[in-house]
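Human:
Care to share another protein and its fold?

Assistant:
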Amino acid sequence: MDSNVFSSKEISFKDGILNGRVIIAGPCTIESYDQLKQTAQSVKNSGADILRGGAFKPRTSPFSFQGLKDEGLEMLKSVRKEVGIKVVTELMDVRDIEKIYDSCDIIQIGSRNMQNFTLLKEVGKLDKPIVLKRGISATIKEWIGAAEYIAVEGNMEVIFCERGIRTFSDCTRNTLDISAVPIVKKLTGMPVIVDPSHAAGRRDLIEPLSLAGLACGADGIMVEVHPQPDMALCDGDQSIDFNGFDELMKKIRRMGL
């Protein structure tokens, strides 16, 4: 794949959203106002640039916690203002575009929607950066093709997120494709971040995968952080607590990543 809509263009992100390495951290799912504000303040103090928090959550089982939805978005807007931190949240449905747009600085398209072409076209008409997560079994060519659906509508501010792909390994939730980072950067010239939490599915691997991603050229990481991971309503096994995130940030700084 020698050329794409990104490769021949100079792209700059507005409002300093992506000015050097970016650290995105926060809970997989917004559970309460106190949980979100406490997490936002803690990760910001440790050096995070952007707060992540899901109000609408796609879950494998319909009986799992699906998020607080509109109530969660209101919490996100309040915490965003009170703590003074940029936020990213996931958009799942074109019907929710307007309220998601008003609640965040960056819109995330999750792996399950990477080839939801109707959704991609609609966010392509927006003027906010889009984090596009790689599909669970998507090739790099398919991933870039999905990003082009956004770009051809006018929105060139796409951030690729490598979050692990499905392989034969049974030791982790997914397999983080480190090689995708330099390949996608070379092919598109666009920023690529890694999500070690969804790749590993286990908190003991978040630190090494974060460091590996940054060492191979990733423009940032997206890490799940929760005040009490073992009590989390969603993906607690792949979340770290405040002390764990603070230690990770210290190690990143010590290593000059």
